[in-house]
Amino acid sequence: MGSLLISDIRVSYPEFSLELSCEIPQGSLVSIIGPSGCGKSTTLQLISGLLSVNAGKIELNGEDITQKEVNKRNIALVFQDYALFPHMNVEKNIAYPMKLKNMKRSVIRREVKEYLALVGLTGYEKRVISELSGGEKQRIALARALASSPEILLLDEPLSALDAKKRKHLRQQIRDIHDTTGITTIYVTHDQEEALTLSDTVIVMRDGKIEQIGTPQEVYSTPSTLFVAQFMGEGTLMDASVLSSEHLKRQSSHTDGLQFSPDKMNLFFRPESGILVTDGGVFPPTLFDHLYLSDAAVTHQEYRGSRYLVSLKWKEQSLIVYSPRHLKADRVDVAIPLKDLIWYS
Prior knowledge:
This protein is of the alpha+beta class. The chain has two domains: 4-231, P-loop containing nucleotide triphosphate hydrolases (Rossmann fold), CATH 3.40.50.300; 236-344, CATH 2.40.50.140. The chain has helices at residues 40-48, 90-100, 105-118, 134-147, 164-181, 192-198, 216-221, 226-231; strands at 4-13, 16-24, 29-33, 55-60, 63-64, 75-78, 152-156, 184-189, 201-206, 209-214, 236-239, 248-249, 266-269, 275-277, 290-303, 308-314, 317-323, 331-337, 342-344. Mean pLDDT is 89; it is low at 252-257.
């Protein structure tokens, strides 16, 4: 297991530059997420040594590895396209990094079986790579990476080529393998659900810089920027200038209201925060301390299995709110707890 400290590393290319500082705790599983071209894969290649930094420092367990060769960093990188050796069978692929360390054949054979069991492919030793499915290839690539006994494991969008069902199964398997081995893992993905469900920590990147670092709960519930709020899940962005005190329902013991300021005139909330009131516009006594938007038009309802995502139009504002059932009403009132409103400039 290893801890990683990235201090002010910088790289510049004709059309892209990256500036990065962060700390990856020992034994953690960290996801890096962001739109295409934001620097996710570049970050992994800098950590692994495949790319050189222009400035800054990378430390592994307190040791400066910024200028170290790739094969001396004890960091394993699993590529998106697996990069398995097609002329070798499964056993030889997994054994390859152990042979480079001149391990005994008997030890290699034993450990190959152990790594195959770890990734759920016991008995696949003699399989030819071309006979494997995409998911099986990914697991063999993971087993080969683990066979090098790395201090840091880097995974570059490892599940992007798989269908949704396989992705869900394998991401849970990756989490289980991480918990079993304790290897510090950095996982690059473009899938928000994957990042939120898999990780201890999420790093959100944009244009070569970090927008936010936090737990999945922090990144989703208290996004530090509007970009993070909109990128890490669905939600409603409203222009606060259309609101007034009549939209605010508070208990009489409260005297403070919505605080409008010139630098923060946008508010954001997640669809699960909204409460739909369909009883003729009567404000329930339990819904104080809420922003209350009356007479919103129902424009669309999308079935999401256990609930519906309801699209609404209030004045000129578009809203989305979850409902536990399909709405029969054409117009509804919407209440959002004030504590769930996030303000942005």
